[in-house]
Amino acid sequence: MSLSWLHVSILLFFISGALFAIAPFIASMLIATRAKSPALYTPYECGMDPYGSAWTKFGINYYFYALLFLAFDVDVLFLFPVATAYADGAGLVPFIKLLIFIVILLASVIFFWKKGVFTWPKRIRF
Question: Looking at the domain assignment, is residue 78 inside a domain?
Fold first, then answer.
């Protein structure tokens, strides 16, 4: 098997890719400071000194509402590209497909509403 310029260029490409991947790690080991202060091990609190323990219990309701918002927000974001893709379609088929998607989204909202997901508790108990 003969070694052509194509093989050499592919080999040089892989070597340069590996160097580009490894060089930042080596540079950070050589350049980075070695001083370890206790401030490095404290949690970051938006530039303020942390207050209290990091093991405080939080109510899951806040995170649950955020996840629900993201889930429905992403579903609604799917409507824009679908609506633009179906704008060129002829007939009722694209409209029916989009209507089915909206009905499924509405059914999930009704399902979560009936389960009591959207009711905010008066007091959060731990």
Answer: yes
